[in-house]
Write a structure and sequence with these properties.
InterPro entries: C2_dom, C2_domain_sf. By secondary structure, this protein is of the alpha+beta class. It has helices spanning 15-23, 32-66, 240-244, 256-262, 267-281, 296-302, 353-358, 410-420, 434-450, 469-487; strands at 73-84, 97-103, 107-110, 121-132, 136-143, 152-160, 164-171, 178-190, 202-203, 207-213, 231-236, 249-250, 289-293, 326-331, 336-341, 363-374, 392-397, 425-429. Strands 10, 11, 12, 13, 14, 15, 16, 17 and 18 form a nine-stranded mixed beta sheet that branches.
Length: 492
């Protein structure tokens, strides 16, 4: 991500001094600022060119409207088949390619990472409704650099959204040289909505998810069973604007923890730490778990899991729905549904669980907690009954101090989840509702009594000798700051 907020000033000087500061630093080292200025100028030129193209497209739409003509809208299914002829990007190995596709910079699709290959096959599908027929599809092919703040750029391809299969040349950043080809297949049909302009660029599936692991999990030597308390999930839901419109939930100005994040002299440092943790937690790597939600059974699979810590006094149940409470947010940036177990160990030392998931966004679509339960509740359940013979329910709420979501939006939240997860009973309840409290406590009680979960696991905590995500993030931030300081001639 670009680094912002740094301002470097130079005092009055002779022409020779100015020449030295723009090109070199003491000791003859090249000043990275001159390179950054060049990149900034190039970036500005590209931005201006994109703005110009966007303005031309809007001008065309306006002229058509003046003549009583409407730009036709289409529903798209785009299949990203694969690529070949990619350049070798790593000194050791080949490349770890993935791509970022977008339609008119309005909606984005990020693929899985393929490891150590120059001819990746993705076969991933993206459905988007209500797209102007004159839209452009741009695909940026990237090389995943594990452990780096940024990934390598291979090149990009661009095409219209006309129906058909095509082979696109990937052009690189230097003299537009060819860097391989990518194959896509586009199916285009007239928009099925009567007024497609009301909800343009509407994501329509499939519902994809990725599972991410805390970087601290690799530093543990005593972890047994699954690693659920060190995992987060990101899921892309369909049709969020249909249910939420333009309603968002801003950060809660009355909540002390939120104040420490979003206002005051120390808030920048607090945000930096949380955002560093978020980047580590949600990093897209080849080791992520990926999948598509096609049925209620796929959702249940995500909620499987037994005892997550060693020393449990009951056998693990890795293939059964775990009675657990989850913290979630629905992002205002990409409409993704992000969640993890509320007792996740990486929450230790963070000012806000929800801010960690949202990357300190000043607003979200919604946030709170949820838990699964068998019909009738956990208090009436027995492990003698197989999970596939149970009608499952999701109980979701607005229990979030950081964003204090408006309870009047709970019916919209319920309809959204019913739309995305057919086959589930969905109950959206206010955080103060007695039914919610009773259901949540029954869930936790079942975990304690029958699934070997320990009381301390219900809230974030670290075992002796464990490195928390907060500490890991602060060490990485400190290292990055020292690197920048050294590059500009400061103390190392």
């Amino acid at each position: 991500m670009p680094v912002t907020g740094a301002v470097y000033k130079y005092g009055p000087s002779t022409p020779n001094h100015r020449r030295q500061t723009s090109e070199t630093m003491p000791g003859g080292l090249r000043n990275p600022l001159s390179l950054s200025q060049m990149v900034e100028k190039i970036g500005s030129a590209v931005h201006d060119a994109k703005d110009g193209a966007h303005n031309k497209k809007e001008s065309l739409q306006k002229k058509m409207a003046e003549h009583g003509l409407m730009v036709p809208y289409v529903d798209l299914q785009i299949q990203f088949i694969g690529a070949s002829g990619l350049p070798k990007m790593d000194v050791v190995g080949t490349a770890d390619p993935y791509f970022i596709a977008n339609l008119d910079d309005k909606i984005t699709f990020v693929s899985t990472v393929k490891q150590n290959i120059l001819s990746p096959v993705w076969n991933e599908v993206w459905r988007v409704k209500n797209v102007p027929a004159i839209a452009d599809l741009e695909i940026k092919v990237m090389d995943k650099d594990e452990g780096s703040m940024t990934d390598g750029y291979i090149g990009k391809a661009k095409t219209s959204v006309n129906a058909g299969a095509r082979e696109l040349e990937i052009t690189g950043p230097l003299l537009r040289r060819s860097r391989g080809t990518i194959w896509v297949k586009i199916e285009s049909t007239p928009s099925s909505d009567e007024q497609p302009f009301q909800y343009p660029y509407l994501f329509d599936g499939p519902i994809r998810f990725s599972r991410h692991y805390s970087p601290t999990v690799g530093k543990l030597t005593n972890l047994e069973g699954d690693a659920r308390l060190y995992s987060t999930w990101k899921m892309y839901l369909k049709g969020i604007p249909l249910f939420f419109g333009d309603v968002y939930q801003p950060w809660n100005k009355s909540y002390k923890a939120a104040q420490s994040i979003f206002q005051g002299p120390t808030s920048v440092a607090v945000r930096s730490g949380i955002q560093a943790g978020h980047r580590m937690l949600y990093a897209r790597t080849a080791s992520n778990g990926f999948g598509v939600i096609e049925s209620a059974a796929d959702v249940l699979q995500l909620l499987h899991g037994g005892a997550s810590r060693p020393g449990s006094n009951a056998p693990a149940h890795p293939s059964r729905v775990k009675p657990a409470v989850y913290t979630y947010i629905i992002s205002s940036e990409d409409d993704s549904f992000r969640f993890s177990e509320t007792g996740a160990a990486f929450f230790v030392d963070f000012a806000s669980k929800h801010a960690l998931h949202s990357n300190c966004a000043e607003k979200v679509r919604y946030s709170g907690e949820f838990h699964p339960r068998p019909q009738g509740g956990w208090a009436c359940f027995s492990d003698d009954v197989p999970d596939d013979q149970v009608h499952w329910e999701l109980v979701i709420d607005n229990n979030s101090g950081t964003y204090a979501p408006d309870k009047t939006m709970l019916p919209a939240l319920q309809k959204l989840l019913e739309y995305n997860f057919p086959g589930f009973g969905i109950f959206a309840l206010d955080h103060g509702d007695e039914e919610l409290k009773k259901s949540r406590e029954a869930c936790r009680d079942y975990a304690l009594r029958f699934r070997g979960v320990r009381q301390e696991e219900l809230q974030p905590h670290a075992q002796q000798g464990e490195e928390t995500l907060s500490h890991h993030a602060s060490v990485c931030l400190s290292h990055a700051e020292k690197t920048v300081e050294h590059a500009f001639g400061g103390k190392s």
